[in-house]
Amino acid sequence: MAVVVLDNGAGSAKAGFATDKEPRIVPNCVSKAKNVRTRIFVGDQVDDCKDLSGLYYLLPFQKGYLVNWDIERQVWDHIFGKDRLKVKFEDTSLIFTEPYFDFTSAQEALNEVFFEEYRFKSILRTNPAFLSQYKHCKEQEEKPLCCLVVDSGYSFTHIVPYCRGKKITQAIRRINIGGKVLTNHLKEIISYRQLMVMDETHVMNQLKEDACYVSTDFSKDMDIARKKGKENTVARDYVLPDYTHIKRGYMKSLEESNAKAKASEQIIRMTNERFAVPEILFHPSDVGIQEMGIAEAVVHTVNCTPEEVRPHLYSNILLTGGNCLLPGFSDRVYSDVRALTPDEYNIRINASKNPLIYSWEGGTLLGKDTGYNKMVVTRQQYDEYGHSICEEKFDV
After folding, report:
1. For the segment 26-78, what is each residue's pLDDT rounded down to a tens digit?
2. Contact 27, 6 (CB under 8 A)
3. pLDDT one-digit tens code per residue, 201-227
4. Measured between alpha carbons, how far is residue 378 from residues 92, 121, 395 in Å?
5. Average pLDDT, the chain
6. I need a surface site. Which of 60, 133, 152, 226 has the fewest CB within 10 A?
7. Cα–Cα–Cα angle for 327, 58, 97, nearest 5°?
8. How is 17-85 classified by DSSP, letter by letter?
9. What whole-number distance in Å separates Cα of residue 188 and Cα of residue 203?
10. Of 158, 178, 208, residue with least CA distance to 59
């Protein structure tokens, strides 16, 4: 029996068979382009689009939860269909990730879509953090007792403690800051200071990925960013794509960055935005969001767990999600958490090689596990017991 793993994030869906080495990373949206009026692009079909300026997105997720089912169905049809995975539903099992504390109505709708419309043989619905800690514990020589997963994605950042493979539900914390907030804030700053880019979500997202980093010493970097000329090692020029010669924007090297554009180039001068935008993850109050930053939330989460578990959680913090790709992220989490915790606790941060697909890889391992068949709900069970068996079996 084939097993399909679908890590259905709000920003991108990671999909593939459990036997695959790498997933297909598909933008979880339907896009429309300004210059192509006749066609809509579903998921990664947007790669066929020649001009990505002014892309208009239709997103299935709002504030981290699945609300627009018609658009999501189009993306899933595309992923499972003949162009991508070519899934034979009758003899395929599905591992599917959904948001933490998902609404009961959404959970029931998922059961109906997968069993009654797609007609999968069996499904397992779970959270991304469960798959991440499963993979992490599998790969350790000595199996750790506890694991604290920091999952920083498109809509939210979640901090989820696990003990012996079970999540400690009352200690889970959510910060309403994710990659989307960072991109939107960057758009606002650049539109205010230099160039109107409020419609250029796609280009600004690439700019964030290419140019931004997390500062380990914010005030020191701020001082450098204020300097003039050669002393300012932070300021860089980012060349925007024009979609005739330059297909994707790129950052110039320190030597080439002189704030002067060549004849055909359009540049954005990036100074303190490079580190001030990701700083929101650690100080949301900077943009008026009255919440804890990641490091404070980690400490707060651990303090909500039983005392005997705390040293094990601190010594096994796992970072996953797309924001962890920002350079300097894990160092900053370490230094901030270290500063907030007593000396007797040993702190260890585990940063995965590719945090974006880490939970998908966990799903592929789980699909090969001997105990996997006991965890799923089959279509026969669903036909007999309905939603109640899914509620019993799935811990979301």
Report:
1. 999 999 988 888 889 999 999 888 888 888 899 999 999 999 999 999 999 99
2. no
3. 999 999 999 999 999 999 999 999 999
4. 11, 6, 16
5. 93
6. 226
7. 60
8. ETT-SS-EEEESSEEE-SS--S-EEEGGGGGG-S--TT-EEE-SEETTEE--HHHHHHHHHHHHSTTTT
9. 13
10. 178
